[in-house]
Queue: 3 jobs
Job 1
Amino acid sequence: MALKAPRGTADLYGRQAQAWNSIRQAAFDFFAGYGYQPIETPTFEQLDVFVRGIGEATDVVGKEMFLVNDKNGLDRIAAGEKPGAGEQLALRPEMTAGVCRAVVEHNLVPPDATTVKLVYAATMYRHERPQKGRMREFHQIGAECLGAAEPSADAEVIVMLMRFFKGWGIPQQSMRLLINSMGDDACRPAFRDKVRSYILEHADSLCEDCVRRADTNPLRAFDCKNAACQAVLVDAPQITDELCEDCKTHYAAVKALLDGAGLTYEEDPRLVRGLDYYTRTVFEVQVTSGLGSQNAIGGGGRYDKLIQEFGGKPTPGLGFAVGFERMLMALEAVGTADFAVAAPEVFVAAVDEDMRFEAFGLAQKLRDAGVPVELDHQRRSLKSQFKQADKSGALFVVVVGPAELAEGKVTLRTLDTREEQQMTLSELIVCLKAFYRQ
Ligand code: HAM
């Protein structure tokens, strides 16, 4: 049987691999302008990092985890026992929990520290039903800002994200920025209770999932895809009516800063997001065409309790993640996905077998001088090397032949004009470097 990539995964090669490289690099560069530094954490963590971080009652943890057992864990399972905490691992479904685990473990935000800002680009794993824009392995680019409680931090993160998308050519009018406040420990419990009561009062008209969640995670009902449920939930209590004074003030300040930055946004009191760590500000960026139902290209929010949950000192935090696959589809929809795979524009060709050694050495010298170079590794004839150069999109061929070499020279041939010029190695380097500076 032919071997295939697992369901819900995709190989990235050619244009798409180039796109991932370009977009992640651009994110690292762009976010660095706001003070973000790279972080990498393991692809798998102790299961508990996600259970405690994201919440057991979320779909991401309750239904979509890829579980991994280490050798000791497997031995225990074989013996009919439960794996120990450190033996039960899971592939990361998102990065925030792992980053916060690392922040606590390495004390990256000591009490007197200024804000710590971290950026990452990595693969995530969720055992979802695959469909357009929904994969089991996908790529995220994300940012986490730790130690900043002020509304200006929320606004900065949102503005940075929107400018990043805009910088890639997604026009403002093709995006919807949804924002909400989820409240905090002071006001959310009462709101949850109200939603729970509302669900139970309307149990006859709601789907089983919504009713079942009334006790575990009632706010998830707002994310139910069932149109009948949504119709019933239109009249459910809204968090914005229930916010305490502090949360109300915080939310108002975030909005004022977004207004000041000239950002258009929509307040969506039903935006609850699928992860339990959020407090106060949450946001999501959707695109209006090209993606179908999986139209969120990024989302995030504040998580002021998460570091504490992992045993750290109270430390506010917030961040977002962008889905690379969905962002690429959005770029394709607006026609700005220009990710041609570029081959070196200089090809070094050996006139005959004896010249291969010299051609190999010359290619290294040119590369050392910063000129991108390709050469033949298939023992092709000179004619085929020219053809290969042409096919690869090269602009120049540097021909290494015995007669010129005896005079310390090579021939530079410009492929489209067929012009040829003999020159020394130092002249060649000056000539090619001048071309690349144009
Ligand atoms: P999230 O909304 O679960 O948030 O994921 C962020 C983005 O990842 C989504 O907007 C979407 O573009 C992409 N995404 C999610 N699931 C899939 C999937 N199955 N296939 C393809 N793309 C997907 C988080 O992950 C949070 N950690 C964001 C965050 C950071 N909040 C605070 N800090």
Job 2
Amino acid sequence: MSKKKTAAIVLAAGMGTRMKSDLPKVMHPIGGRPMINHLLATLDKIHVDETVVVVGPDMAQLEAAVAPRKTAVQFDRAGTGDAVRVGMEALGPFKGNVLILYGDTPLIREQTLNAMLEAREAQPGQLSPTVVVLGFEPDDPGVYGRLVLDDEDGELMAIVEANDATPEQREISLCNSGVMCFDGELLPQFLSRLSDDNAKGEYYLTDCVGFAREDGFRCVVVDGDEEELIGVNSRVELAQAEVIFQDAMRDKMMKGGASLIDPSTVYFSFDTKIGRDVLIEPNVQFGLGVKIADRVHIKGFCHIEGAIIASGAIVGPFARLRPGTNLGEDAKIGNFVEIKNADVEQGAKVSHLSYIGDARVGADANIGAGTITCNYDGFLKHKTDIGAGAFIGSNTALVAPVNVGAGAIVGAGSTLTQDVGANDIVTTRAELKSAPGAAERFRDRKRAEKEQRQKEKPKKD
Ligand code: UD1
Ligand code: MG
């Protein structure tokens, strides 16, 4: 970790026209979280002392998403140099490292930023570098700024934007990722010297490298990896970033002791927590707020969000767990079951085709196929409480609010509109009426009717 204090300026003033969206670009989610918040979480991990996010005008939603961090509004999109100037004004005089990041480059890793901060520390016998630039070698250097190195000492001499580069400079494969770290005391005077006399008519932050060299300061390059430096400018790039993020999450889960039979078909949210010896079958999606304890088995094709699952539980295949689901130890949720805002306690089973919402299912209770908690009366939601060890027969409708006592047995096909006492047996089905032998008489009559109709049909010639 760096010994110096560190501030971060995150550039996020661009609306991202290529996203074709009403949402500021950096608010688009990856793994269920706005991309700007991924970056801010990484900055928290490296213990940045202060952060300023440079936003565009009318981006209240973005300002709320980054709160309580400072924001500064850049009114004219006059280039990265201008954006940093706006950020520095909000930051005020700062002695230490000033990291510059882009809000639309959200997957940069903690280790990479730490390597940049370390590069700013003085090595024995040398002045500490004033500017550290994160460089990378993309497959296609295209529009990236090129890093021009000194042939003798390998240090950075200048960054030349692609549009302003000579054909020889365009051949350089080492490019500017945009992430930079400056000496905070010297940065303001470099920024004050910027001009917009260039191909784009913008204030280029990258020109600060040339000024630092002119003044006799050192500028160095730290190497980054193309995957973590992916910039998101379009929905296609957003999807590419999501793939990179999901692959990283799958690796993390497997390293943490979960088995994924077909990792590429399992999708996580940024906050998914999974224990050890958890088995996840193919085609499972975890929405926000899922916590899974040890030895849980999630069978194929489940959709799980806002659920807490205790150890040993079995879920699926084809189960849907919605927010507020709490599964106790060894609980079992089977196919085509939907659970919402409900506690299914230890050892309870809801094995087939059921809806359990706004409910408690007591320990070891057994819920038969097709059971529905009728929790909504068209205006309000009501609670169903099923006691421990109760048995709810198949195709039962529990019209909430309703309580079933512990150990009670509810006969199949019941519609419960009143409470059931503990250990009672109840049925609400209609009496069976029987007409012995009537089926044969019915068939004889129908056969005769059919023959009669066929005789009466006009014959074709
Ligand atoms: C910039 C770098 C280039 C580098 C590339 C990496 C400069 C002059 N060029 O070019 O060397 O290879 O990034 O992706 O710095 N932004 C603002 N306000 C502005 C302008 C930009 O907030 O006035 C933000 C954008 O929202 C974006 C970031 O800064 O997040 C980069 O801006 P962009 O216009 O994409 O810079 P490039 O031309 O790609
Ligand atoms: Mg760009």
Job 3
Amino acid sequence: MENVIIIGTGPAGYTAAIYSARADLAPLILTGSQPGGQLTTTTDVENFPGFPEGIMGPELMQKMQQQAERFGARVENGVAVTNVIHNADKSFTVEAHNVFSPDDKKVYQTKTVIIASGASARYLGLPGEEELVKSGAGLTACATCDGAFYRDVPVCVIGGGDSAAEEATFLTKFASKVYLIHRREELRASKIMAARALANEKVEPVWNSGVTGYVLDENKRIKAVKLKNTVDGTESELAVEGVFMAIGHNPNTGFISKDLVDQDDSGYLIQIPGKTATKTPGVFAAGDVADTVYRQGITAAGQGCAASLEAEHYIANLEG
Ligand code: NAP
């Protein structure tokens, strides 16, 4: 019987692991298919406190893992959780399988579960997107992380929601021009955020348009996007050096039943207000999997800390 099983290895999962390990709970961490989470898909991280020169995303996550392991956390790589079952004796059964061979099933028993499985930015599904993101070639889904790399060059934001409006406004601090490419001619964003973005003289909306491809220069960096008008089908190219995707995120919650943890319409886990605890005692949620607002590495880390402290308290009460 484990004390704590942590599902996910982004900043929330590893911070929960560091705190649980230092509390002598010997946590078991299951990495899933993307060890290190979303930060491993970015290059320079300049906004995580403690690294004045910045740090590469994968290196930051490696350091968090080392810090957790130093205190006795155990990391099982390549294990994807498929179900969490609440047992009659208040414990949990975690069912999983090997991500490389799904027939290789695994079952764990635990007193508490911290769900820190994160969210995945949506991309358009065009060929080569994954490589463009990984190589830092001009495609990203995080203006806060990467905006400062695009000083005095034209960029575009794809999407029409609050994220797109907010990111377009933010990017005007750096970019020479911010094209806001939306598939309709009206933003979904709240009136105030839409008005703020559109009032900025650097923001130029490109209505009724979808991106159908990326045009690369000789260094394999983006130099333009291909556009298709969603009304009349006309095609064109727009010169940009950075493409910021803001078409929403998908929380990684497919393996969690709504009987165990309430979810909003998009699948984000719902915590008890002001806590990381969920409606099922012993199950805690931390980081992007339950965050529709901030979605930052440091806010996820803070929630991971809180989840660990709450789990420790819960276990102490079980035993007391
Ligand atoms: P969102 O509200 O779901 O908006 C996604 C946008 O992307 C929509 O405009 C949608 O177009 C477009 N889109 C979706 N799939 C697309 C595709 N395949 N191709 C082209 N466009 C596509 O997502 P979000 O903006 O990330 O916001 C998520 C939640 O967080 C919202 O509740 C939002 O209010 C909240 N949020 C709040 C703040 C804040 O208050 N500071 C900041 C950011 C986000 P359509 O409009 O045509 O559907």
